[in-house]
């Protein structure tokens, strides 16, 4: 937490969503001729591990987004996951005849949401590519205050 902060959380979230998309796509590629049920089961187990990782990383990000409104943010994120499942079901599984095609399209949908991690940025937390924006003078001012206090206590 201290070393990687929000940057690490967002990278973990990205990789867990990307892994979820990859293994869902691979699961959608398996039929009787390409490995049968044992391979499908293995892909489904790994996929489910990535699903659980993505859920955990989502709630690892939530407490830091707007700490003053933690309950509201948690509720919106929880409801958003449920809404996403309903959208995916209606979009990919109700209207498409081939189940394997549906799984591949759902994997593309998950991969799209993984790519949105690159756009996530908070001024007070940072993004995947760097920490929060801190004025240049602030660290030196804090260090100067410490030096003054250390000198005064001697």
Question: Secondary-structure map with pairings?
Answer:
Elements: H1 5-28, H2 36-65, H3 70-93, H4 99-115, E1 121-122, E2 126-127, H5 137-153
Antiparallel strand pairs: 1-2
Helix pairs in contact: 1-2, 1-4, 2-3
End-to-end separation in angstroms reads: 34 Å
Sketch the major β-sheet: 2 strands, antiparallel
Number of strands: 2
Q: Please state the average pLDDT score.
A: 85
Number of helical stretches of at least 4 residues: 5
Helix content estimate = over 70%
Give the strand order, joined by hyphens, for the main sheet: 1-2
Short description:
The protein has 154 residues and is an all-alpha fold. 73% of the residues lie in helices and 3% in strands.
Walk me through this protein's architecture.
With 154 residues, the protein is an all-alpha fold. 73% of the residues lie in helices and 3% in strands. The chain is built from five helices and two strands. The chain has helices at 5-28, 36-65, 70-93, 99-115, 137-153, and strands at residues 121-122, 126-127. It has a two-stranded antiparallel sheet. Helix 1 packs antiparallel against helix 2 (36-65), helix 1 packs antiparallel against helix 4 and helix 2 (36-65) packs antiparallel against helix 3 (70-93). Mean pLDDT is 85; it is low at 136-148.
